[in-house]
Amino acid sequence: MPIYYPDILDQKTEPRTFSYGDKDVMLYALGIGMGADPMNETELAFVYEKGLKVVPSAATVLAAGAPRSAATSDKPGHRQSQINFLMVVHGEQKVELHKPLPTSATFTTQSRTIGAYDKGEGKGAVIINETVWTDASGEKVATLTGSTFARGDGGFGGPSDGAPEPHPTPSRKPDLSVDFTTRPDQALLYRLNGDRNPLHSDPDVARRAGFQRPILHGLCTYGITCRAVLQAITDFDPEQILSHQARFSAPVIPGDTITVDLWRDGKDISFEARVKERGATVIKNGLTVLR
After folding, report:
1. Sequence-separated (6 or more) residues with CB below 8 Å from residue 151
2. Catalytic one of 200, 217, 244, 256
3. HSE-up of 151 (CA within 13 Å, CB side)?
4. Which of 83, 104, 118, 226 would be a feasible disulfide site paired with 150, CB 3.0-4.6 Å?
5. 182-229 pLDDT, tens per residue?
6. Is 200 an annotated catalytic residue?
7. Predicted TM-score (pTM) of this structure
8. Which entry of 7, 10, 135, 195 is annotated as an active-site residue?
9. DSSP state of 34
10. End-to-end Cα distance, the chain
């Protein structure tokens, strides 16, 4: 099915209720590599129920168990759009927390399409979706915004300009850098958070996709950059983080060492992530905003 514009901007999912608990919170932290040293008490607080803390980027996975529903519209004459999911790449991700996440909760989530940009026939399209979490009183808890590059869906007649500009990385040298060595089995652990795409676990699928071995989930790398801000900037206090956003630029291979470069300008923390061994920048245009 093609993309119909502007009808796609009216598409939204039905509200869905989901719950998560301390096990989900701890599994996420383990999945992004925290707790590797069980004597590191600052990281232990994210993987042990005693005084448990929640990594802000865990919002990308905690609703994974919510029932799935297709995006539809209640407008008369609406034409249903659908992209070719075999040809999509996760472009950007942002998590904004209107209040710090509790260690267990029940929330309602609803998603909608807020942007569709046409790069031209054969050049793909950029689709932007927004997911809002609300609590029992209807107050916003979190807003997740993600962009998808749909490589097979260009030429639908939508606007080519107007997509949000990426956050500019400072031109000066990083104020500080931190290294994180990923484990060879990191993707096998992280996938238990809900994303069981075999690209991250099946060597044959990975080879057919053009990789020598399964690659790490982009959202795992995203979580590692949030971990870097927690460690280097907030002294492991997740409540200081208001939002965390980044653009995905290259895959990480489990076992890679990721270097996260950070720049601090008041409450704005810019960051990029790279794998020095391969000379690859894997996360660009990162921005964390502190409360």
Report:
1. 87, 88, 89, 124
2. 200
3. 7
4. 83
5. 999 999 999 999 999 999 999 999 999 899 999 999 999 999 999 999
6. yes
7. 0.95
8. 195
9. T
10. 43
